[in-house]
Amino acid sequence: MYKLLIVDDEEIVREGLRDIVAYLQVQHIGQILTAKDGADALSIINIENPQIILTDLNMPVLDGIEMIKQLQGKHEHKIIVVSGYDDFHLVKESFKLGVRDYLLKPAHSEELLDVLDKIVRELRQEEQQYQKGESEKMLTQMERVSRSMNWVLQSAEQDEHALERVFAELGLSLPYPDTAAAILSPMHSASNAESLGADWDALLTRPDTNRLPMKLYSFYNRQNDLVVWINYDRLRGGSSAVKQVLEQFLGSTPELPVVIAVGMTVSAATGLALAYRSTLQVLSYKLTAGPRSILLYDEILTREERHISPADLRILTEIIDMGRKDQVLPYIQKYFNDESLRRSTLDSIRSNYDAILQTIRWIPRQKQDFSAFEQSEQLRLYLISRILQTIEARQSLIRSYDMVEIAKKYVEEQLLGEINMAVIANYCNVSYAYFSKLFKESTGMNFQDYVTMQRMDYAKKALNGINVKICDVASALGYSNPKNFTRVFKSYCGMSPKEYQKLMK
């Protein structure tokens, strides 16, 4: 189990985050510690050595930036920053110091869960990678190179000469002026990475490969993908030789479903970390590549922003409203077919993915992390199945409940968001006026009064909490002016929120 340390100078924020994390029950996170500032955090870290740190930046005594600086080189922590809009200049500085992620205050539980899940996966991957190795004396050359490379790549942004020194320590020369990195990644996560390395080693021992004007060094990164440093001379036809050796590898392994990503070329050893990061950026497009293909950095830069239009999102709503299952596949194919994906930027693909899930949010489901998709077919099948599930669930809901029950469920799920009666009327395929009349006849009150009643009931429960501020409850319920909230609460409860809190105490 991993330990989590929450660092914030505001007790209500600190304890609130602790309660949220405890409620989320993130797998593999056990003990949750708290600290009131950076100095307090350093003392706790020296004793407890938490693997994950969730910290504010703007704090008295010792701020978050200085705390992170003092941790560098001493401990291996995964640091997540939680800060406000005004601290974004500090956030940028924290990323230079190796911070893993950033959340904007107030941190929502879904975002916090996604970040913590990702960090836990990274920790477990690192543990598995470490445990898989044997003792230092028994390490093969590949294992020793991999360990050294992975270790230094974590700190290369702070020390531009770090990789250069590792090459020298390992006795790996860079005789040519240009260097690029390539990552050979199996299409399936469960593919045998050791087999991939063996196939690559077999290629390097071929006589025609040895005559190429380049130096090739390989290692496994923390994702267990095979990384190849390619040292060559662009002025002596090196670029074509790079493509030649990679195509030779694909030709020699016809049965292996692998994607090769090639990053930018750098002309100095101090740029090796940049070359590697650019290759990771290219590899993120693996989703859009077919098996046994080569993704190039220059090609990625020409991708287009291709977003689903608002009109097409309305069409999706109509497909769901009318239960037109036969139109789901053509709809997804329009934006997520292989040709469209190969022409689109990753940000626009992710945006389209989010837009579709947002459009079908009526039936809340756990959203799959976009980065988990390795193949385009996986993405298409996921979206199609979610839309069909939404259609089925909606039809079942309409069959099982009358329109008033549907409205009450909608209010319950959207209580802290925007509530619009027209949405429910459209959902049930009835007019606004008919729904309004039906709701009042069934409940004895109009729809807006019902919403207000539910919100005031929520407010009463919230105000019973410890150290709860009235303005925070008002804001959560959508009241930009606390005075308006106080007026409505008093009208509903017969007393002001402050008087209610005193009564409850």
What does this structure look like?
The chain is of the alpha/beta class. The chain folds into 4 domains: 2-130, Response regulator (Rossmann fold, 3-Layer(aba) Sandwich); 139-300, Reverse transcriptase/Diguanylate cyclase domain (Alpha-Beta Plaits, 2-Layer Sandwich), CATH 3.30.70.270; 310-400, no CATH class; 427-504, Homeodomain-like (Arc Repressor Mutant, subunit A), CATH 1.10.10. Helix content is 54%, strand content 12%. The protein is built from 24 helices and 10 strands. It has helices at residues 11-24, 38-48, 64-71, 88-96, 109-132, 141-153, 162-169, 193-204, 207-210, 238-252, 272-283, 297-300, 310-322, 328-336, 338-343, 346-359, 376-400, 403-413, 421-427, 432-443, 447-463, 470-476, 482-493, 497-504, and strands at residues 2-7, 29-35, 52-55, 78-83, 101-104, 178-186, 214-220, 226-232, 258-262, 293-296. A 5-stranded parallel β-sheet has the order 2-1-3-4-5, with helices on both faces. Strands 7-8-6-9-10 form a 5-stranded mixed β-sheet, sandwiched between helices. Strand 3 (52-55), helix 3 and strand 4 (78-83) form a beta-alpha-beta unit. The two termini are 38 Å apart. Residues 134-138 have low confidence and may be disordered.
